[in-house]
Amino acid sequence: MKRNTMLALVVVLGGLPALAHAQDCEEGATTAAQVRNCLSGKDDALLDKAYAETLRRARTQDATLAPKLSLAQASWLKFAQDSCEYTVASSTLQTNSNDARLMCMQTFIQARIRVLNGYQRALEQER
């Protein structure tokens, strides 16, 4: 996929933060697979950071919250993966399946980070 097409899809589906990641990941990459792996790694790192902080705050607030958050995170991940597999299978976009999967997971991850950040704010208010 041409660089401009990949950037356009990232902007449309992922917004400006995704564009910054895409530009970072394209530097030094020689294949689309390398760009996808880089983008996926950056998204995973942001999600892991938000989840770890939310889990830490949940444990601090009430020890019974942490297992519930862990279960919710595992359920969310399964839902996101299954949803993206459906998206790939039913996609009419002129993208390959790896690009469609990446864009789908980016959308889910960005939404999940917003949810986790909301949980953090709620835990702060309950202190």
From TrEMBL:
The keyword S-adenosyl-L-methionine does not apply. The keyword Cell wall biogenesis/degradation does not apply. Keywords: Signal. Residues 25-116 form the Lysozyme inhibitor LprI-like N-terminal domain. Residues 1-22 form the signal peptide. It comes from the Bacteria. This is Lysozyme inhibitor LprI-like N-terminal domain-containing protein. The lineage of its organism: Bacteria, Pseudomonadati, Pseudomonadota, Gammaproteobacteria, Lysobacterales.
